[in-house]
Amino acid sequence: MSLGQPSAADLIGERTRAEIFALVLTAGPISRTGIADRLGLAPSTVTRLLPPLLAGDYLRETRAVSTGPGRPQRLLRVNADRHVVVGVKIAPTHVAGVLTDMGARVLARAETPLAECSPATALAVAAELVTTLLAEAPTRERALGVGVGVGGHVDSRAGSCRYSAILGWREVDVAGPLAAATGLPVVVDNDVNTLVVAQRWFGGGKDVDSFAVVTVGSGVGCGLLLDGALYSGASGMAGELGHLPLEPDGPTCGCGRRGCLEALASSGAVLRRLRRCPEAADCPDVDAAVALARGDDGPAGRAARAAFAAAGQALGRGLAGLCNLLNLHKIIIAGEGVTAHDLFGPAMMSAFEEHAFSEAARDCRVCYDPVEDDLWARGAACLVIRETVRAPLS
Ligand SMILES: [Zn+2]
């Protein structure tokens, strides 16, 4: 959005401005003093970073009101009607999207199933979904852009998916075709990163500066917020917790290597282990495995409980590694597999506590969040809002 490379100080300023906007969005109306207190900033920093947000009409000030002792203060609030934004999540079986206002409030939602998820099909469906959602907007002129979450290795600068095992994609330009089809700017990121932004703004990450979202289910994903900033790594691949090598002679992983966490803790790993039990050899899917584990007193039920516990144990070792390395405040377990946490959680927590170094486990809260379906897409919309308010063009 600007010419030339911004300096490190500019980048820190932009990041802080996005944090200020997010705080006003989640905790506003709030005074300048309140912002400085909550974010640990000097009042002069808040005063320096606010003008572009006010000039661009992204934030507005109320009339001075009395908020306690001292002089009445003007409060800041988000001008939610300034723009609408579309957030999209591309999954192997469907494309889900939401239309939000500038306050990331969901105005409309839509979902289209995918018969197959080739890039051409999925991106055409995504473009149609954007058009459908924008038809719900008061005026299309106010559409700011489209945020897209894709599972896998995403190069967000290039707007492309380098590799996605779950979609079977390699070197796919996501932003180009979608921008051409919709006429809007497109921001692309890893889907777990969109969830990290949503958790930071609306969920369990609101009150902590360093946390991880770990998704469990058909794969194991991870997104990181470190010292208040989304961490993507040198080339966008940070957080590949699923491919942490845990057992050199373990089962083969989807990535072709052996003994990765994902090969030990995914729903496929649970099923593989369970089917070794003759009484459960024909268990069709993970839902049936959950039903066996919760309701069967025989050998199949015992095998199912053991399979979930083994997955939990591997996950707990992975989480301990994550926590030992990064000293996180919190780990939020999400994803479609989280609803079975009664089955894998106890083994996960004991392995986590066993392998966490020193006080790392005590300092880190682990919680489960069966994320609402549209939070992923809402997080993708937040990416666009965040990019805009970092360095607003007024
Ligand atoms: Zn792997």
Descriptive keywords:
Nucleotidyltransferase, domain 5, 5-stranded mixed beta sheet, Arc Repressor Mutant, subunit A, 394 residues, 41% helix, 21% strand, binds zinc ion, alpha/beta
Please describe what this structure looks like:
The chain has three domains: 11-78, Winged helix-like DNA-binding domain superfamily/Winged helix DNA-binding domain (Arc Repressor Mutant, subunit A); 84-197 and 375-389, Nucleotidyltransferase, domain 5, CATH 3.30.420.40; 206-370, ATPase, nucleotide binding domain (Nucleotidyltransferase, domain 5), CATH 3.30.420. The protein is built from 14 helices and 16 strands. It has helices at 8-27, 32-39, 43-49, 51-55, 119-134, 175-182, 191-202, 261-265, 267-274, 286-295, 299-326, 341-355, 360-363, 375-390; strands spanning 30-31, 59-61, 75-78, 84-90, 94-101, 106-113, 143-150, 153-155, 160-164, 169-173, 186-190, 211-216, 220-226, 229-231, 330-334, 365-368. A hairpin with a 4-residue loop joins strand 9 and strand 10. Residues 243, 253, 255, 257, 260, 262 line the site of zinc ion.
Chain-wise SSE layout:
Blueprint: H1 8-27, E1 30-31, H2 32-39, H3 43-49, H4 51-55, E2 59-61, E3 75-78, E4 84-90, E5 94-101, E6 106-113, H5 119-134, E7 143-150, E8 153-155, E9 160-164, E10 169-173, H6 175-182, E11 186-190, H7 191-202, E12 211-216, E13 220-226, E14 229-231, H8 261-265, H9 267-274, H10 286-295, H11 299-326, E15 330-334, H12 341-355, H13 360-363, E16 365-368, H14 375-390
Parallel strand pairs: 4-7, 7-11, 12-15, 15-16
Antiparallel strand pairs: 1-3, 2-3, 4-5, 5-6, 8-9, 9-10, 12-13, 13-14
Helix pairs in contact: 1-14, 2-3, 5-6, 7-14, 9-11, 10-11, 11-12
Bound molecules: zinc ion.
